[in-house]
Amino acid sequence: MTRLSYFLGIAALTAATSAQAAELPAEIKQAGALKLTVNSTYAPMEYRDPATNELVGLDVDLANELAKRLGVKIVWSETPFAELIPSLQTRRADFIISGISDRASRRETADFVDYLGTGPQFFVMAENEAKAATDLCGKKVGTTRSTSFPVEIEKWSKQNCEPAGKPAIQYVPGENSIDVRNQLKQGRIDAAVQGSETLPYAQTQEPGKYRVIGEPFAKGYQGVMFRKDDAALREVVTEKLIAMIADGSYKAVLDKWSLGGNAVAQPMLNAAPQ
Predict the structure, then answer these.
(1) CA separation for the pair 26, 231 (Å, rounded)
(2) First to last CA, the chain
(3) Which of 46, 75, 124, 145 has the fewest CB atoms lying closer than 10 Å?
(4) Taking the CB of residue 67, how many other CB atoms lie within 10 A of it?
(5) How far apart are CA 163 and CA 186, in angstroms?
(6) Positive/negative CA dihedral, 5, 22, 65, 72
(7) Within the chain, where are the H helices?
(8) Neighbours of 52 (CB within 10 A)
(9) pLDDT by position in tens, the chain (length 274)
(10) What DSSP assignment string belongs to 201-231?
């Protein structure tokens, strides 16, 4: 995204929410509920608490606060990550807030209101001898197949491995972040890639087991995903999100999940660079 289009996106959001208060679409207001679906395998964004089996996470907290401000309840459902976008397109979900990255390829049929910084990071088992990311050239690196990370890994490898005369990274697909970490623990892969928002939680859950290598090697955003023809819903949710940032409740949710460093100053429309 160019600087001009970025600022045009901000201007569009500001204009939409300052001229007059946006309103919920009539069908949602009449139902008194939002239909939201998540992939509950992406802690700490959304997951089932092992102790209570309740659906919890940063996205769940943000969505619940948005729903309270909109005066509606949420009817939650769960689906595999690969089914999130079809759930939106077939109107089984009103919007998607489920750890989904804003990607240019996804904007053909949807708009993203970006609310969280993210980026792929390499990590290994604590006993692994790798010190720098370039030590992973030629190694088997796993990540979730349905994310943007396979492309980012290939791009990073072409920029950092092959030019130095080192073999390319061998990408190994996984179904979700849990599957990828299991492959790592079982020794089927040498390293793995997850979003920077998930690794602190994984490290607290299994202390001393994983070691992060380097900083995120690409920059992106997670966004609330809306159908292109649902501008009214996008605008009213954006309005509430702006208010949450202004009054500190957005920060409180991120701090609760130890992700204050991933905060954005304002929600952004289709702002991710890839």
Answers:
(1) 13
(2) 8
(3) 75
(4) 17
(5) 31
(6) negative
(7) 3-18, 26-31, 58-70, 84-89, 149-160, 177-185, 199-205, 231-247, 249-256
(8) 8
(9) 444 344 445 545 554 444 456 789 999 999 999 999 999 989 999 999 999 999 999 999 999 999 999 999 999 999 998 899 999 999 999 999 999 999 888 998 899 999 999 999 999 999 999 999 999 999 999 999 988 899 999 999 999 999 999 999 999 999 988 999 999 999 999 999 999 999 989 899 899 999 999 999 999 999 999 999 999 999 999 999 999 999 999 999 999 999 999 999 999 999 987 6
(10) HHHHHSTTTEEEESS-SS-EEEEEEEETT-H
Instruction: Return all residues near 86 (Cβ < 8 A) that are at least 6 apart.
Output: none
Before 44, cis peptide (omega within 30)? yes
Token look-up 């395998």 returns: 41
Are 142 and 192 within 8 A, CB to CB? yes
Say if strands 33-38 and 140-144 run parallel, antiparallel, or are unpaired: unpaired
